[in-house]
Amino acid sequence: MAHIRPLIIGMAMACVACAAQATDQTTPPQNAQLQQAEIAKGDPARWYQDDATAAAQLRTLRKEIGAALAEANLACKQGPAAERNRCMQEARATYKQDMANAAQIRAENHQH
To answer: What angle do CA 18, 26, 31 make, to 5 degrees?
Structure first.
């Protein structure tokens, strides 16, 4: 799982790039509150546990791809109205491409 995080972060950054003038806040408010509560407790132990099976790794990757889409959509909505449709189309296209290639991405990031 630790190998996937840089990839997902990179994908999210690419999606957010299309909304360059958006504000820094791209996390939905309800998620931000949950994140703050977790941060106060320290890193959850699950962050340091690799998924044991290929199916679990793929499930985690799909969740992260979905989270990247949600953040990109929020960034697009906060960006200039004239660029919003193009930005959201690019975010959806990236999501679809990543989901279609999820098994390959998982395999590349879990080579031993």
So the answer is: 145
